[in-house]
Amino acid sequence: MIHITAQMRVLVAIESVDGRKGIDSLVRVCQEKLSEDPISGCVFVFRSRGGTSIRVLAYDGQGYWLAQKRLSQGRFTWWPESNSAAKQLEAYEAQLLMVAGDVSRIRAAPMWRRVSELK
Description:
- The chain is an alpha+beta fold.
- It is built from two helices and five strands; from the N terminus they run βαββββα.
- The protein has one domain (10-117).
């Protein structure tokens, strides 16, 4: 099971990938297209070209985990936009994406800040 915690770095690949890609192919995408180290502890999220499924790749220190969610109806209509190859999401945004599919329509509590930062 891939458990995403608030301390984890989550990167979403902006460009879609072939939904048939396995662990080794997605690791290469992380290295070559995203310029990221796939064993860094970061969680990587990819969307299929048709938008009907997402894949989550994570390394836990012993090996890779690969999870997939395929929608029975519809598509993942919301996807982040960026000029770079990947965009960082907060952990709660990644969880909302996997559960609800559309992060933009969900309101969440503001991110925690130190009391000294509040004015």
